[in-house]
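Q: Please design a sequence for this.
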């Protein structure tokens, strides 16, 4: 069986559920590759007519909004002890440095940290729970959550699908190459996200060192 024929047998419902669940869990606070799954599924929709891009985008938006809302409620109930527990369970994602970086973003941008955080890997898993921990008013959180979910998930689906349709004939002729490119794109996105996280952590450590450094003593005058 050719790869194209195999792809045609993949149930559309399973793709919709996978995208919605993974993005929802990531938005809830569990470090999963939601962006990679969304891009890969959208490229698949561009080459397979039985997968509806509108339904795919709707599932992605729903997963983002619902997941963030659940994360908010969990964070509001769990408070700071929740962040400490997450730091022990997921030290690479919820380290003290990452939490401090996310908190500074919330202090600087307020409710729009939720919107902006949708486009930044580090903040994407923090936005919901941290907004709850910091007791941001839910109506502010909901506005930024819905706008961020629609623009990020819906926008990503629309852009990637449009690019995929432009190259539809090429993808159908060389479907296996299309899958390889999707995989490479996903791996590249993951590496970029890791690089951004390390850069943010380094900046946080530098800022912390600067704050704790003792001021240089000036000799008293005669």
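A: Design:
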């Amino acid at each position: 069986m050719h790869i194209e024929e195999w792809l045609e047998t993949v149930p559309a419902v399973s793709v919709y559920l996978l995208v919605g669940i993974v993005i929802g869990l990531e938005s809830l606070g569990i470090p999963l590759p939601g962006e990679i799954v969304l891009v890969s599924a959208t490229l698949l929709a561009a080459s397979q007519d039985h997968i509806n891009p509108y339904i795919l985008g709707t599932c992605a938006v729903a997963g983002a909004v619902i997941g963030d809302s659940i994360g908010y409620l969990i964070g509001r109930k769990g408070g700071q002890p929740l962040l400490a527990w997450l730091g022990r369970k997921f030290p690479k994602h919820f380290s003290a440095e990452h939490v401090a970086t996310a908190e500074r973003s919330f202090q600087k941008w307020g409710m729009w940290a939720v919107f902006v955080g949708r486009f930044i890997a580090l903040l994407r898993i923090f936005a919901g729970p941290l907004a709850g921990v910091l007791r941001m008013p839910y109506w502010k959180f909901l506005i930024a959550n819905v706008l961020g979910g629609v623009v990020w998930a819906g926008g990503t689906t629309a852009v990637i699908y449009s690019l995929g349709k432009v190259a539809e004939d090429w993808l159908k002729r060389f479907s296996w190459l299309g899958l390889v490119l999707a995989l490479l794109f996903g791996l590249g996105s993951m590496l970029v996200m890791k690089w951004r996280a390390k850069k943010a952590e380094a900046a946080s450590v530098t800022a912390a060192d600067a704050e704790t450094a003792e001021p240089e003593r000036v000799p008293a005058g005669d």
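Q: Thanks. Anything notable?
A: Residues 1-171 form one domain. The chain has a mean pLDDT of 76.
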